[in-house]
Amino acid sequence: MILVYSFEQMNDEQAQEIAAWRYEPPYDFYDMPGDPEDLEVLLAPERRRNYYAAVSGGGGLAGFFCFGSEAQVPGGDYADDSAIDVGLGLRPDLAAKGLGLGFVLAGLEFAEDRFAPSGFRLSIATFNERAIRVYERTGFWRTGTFTSNEGDRFLIMVREG
């Protein structure tokens, strides 16, 4: 299955839908209620200005991307300040169906057109080998790791624009 995506500024209805998404363990780590700070940003229109809904050709919400300040990635050795930080999520029922590569590439293409960054930077939980493989296939490489205040380990990955 191949989906075509369009991107639009996220609205309240889309934010509420994403807040209700539930992933299967161990990916439930990404459920929004598990991170009150991220949930607060998602649900506050004035704070989610960097969030974009990825809408599939059929018109349904397929996922989201966040670019810039709300997706900031700490640490790492990729010091290019013109790189843009990326956060993203694919709807739970679309995960593990072979859609990740096309989804990530579509979001990065959107960001290249809109922001013209020199590169991209993201962080991913180290247990999420499935996503790490997708990111590597899209040209990201590993630059370092960090541990969150809660003790979770994250991998920092970068890609040229």
Structure, briefly:
With 161 residues, the chain is of the alpha+beta class. Helices cover 25% and strands 29% of the residues.
Structural Rg: 15 Å
Task: Estimate what percentage of residues fall within beta strands.
Answer: 25-35%
What's the rounded overall pLDDT mean? 89
What level of helicity do the residues show? 25-40%
- Major beta-sheet overview: 7 strands, mixed
Which class best fits the helix and strand makeup?
alpha+beta
If you had to describe this structure to a student in words, what would you say it looks like?
By secondary structure, this protein is α+β, with helices and mostly antiparallel strands. It has helices spanning 12-19, 36-43, 100-115, 129-137, and strands at 5-9, 51-56, 61-67, 84-90, 119-125, 141-147, 153-160. Strands 1-2-3-4-5-7-6 form a seven-stranded mixed β-sheet, covered by helices on one side. Helix 3 (100-115) links the parallel strand 4 and strand 5. The chain is globular and about 35 Å long.
